[in-house]
Amino acid sequence: MFMRSEKVIVALMLTVLLALTGYWLKNQFKIDSCFDLGGKWDYEEKRCLK
Measured in whole angstroms, how far is the alpha carbon of residue 50 from the centre of its chain? Predict the structure, then answer.
């Protein structure tokens, strides 16, 4: 059985994981949109080159 502090730690870890996943997905959608528009993604400058 989880103790209260363990539940809090698990909840915080899941929150951080979800936030990082959301950030990663946001960037992946930007890259995909660039490719869909016929552009080339510059990974160093993190922008779309058309």
Answer: 24
Tens-digit pLDDT profile for residues 13-41:
999 999 999 999 999 999 999 999 999 99
Cα four-point dihedral sign 33, 34, 39, 40:
negative
Which residue, chain included where needed, has tokens 């949109």? Answer: 33
Instruction: Give the alpha-carbon dihedral of 23, 27, 30, 34, to 10 degrees.
Output: -170
The structure tokens 């779309």 sit at 48
Domain ranges for the chain: 4-49
Integer Cα distance of 10 and 20 in angstroms: 15
pLDDT at 3: 84
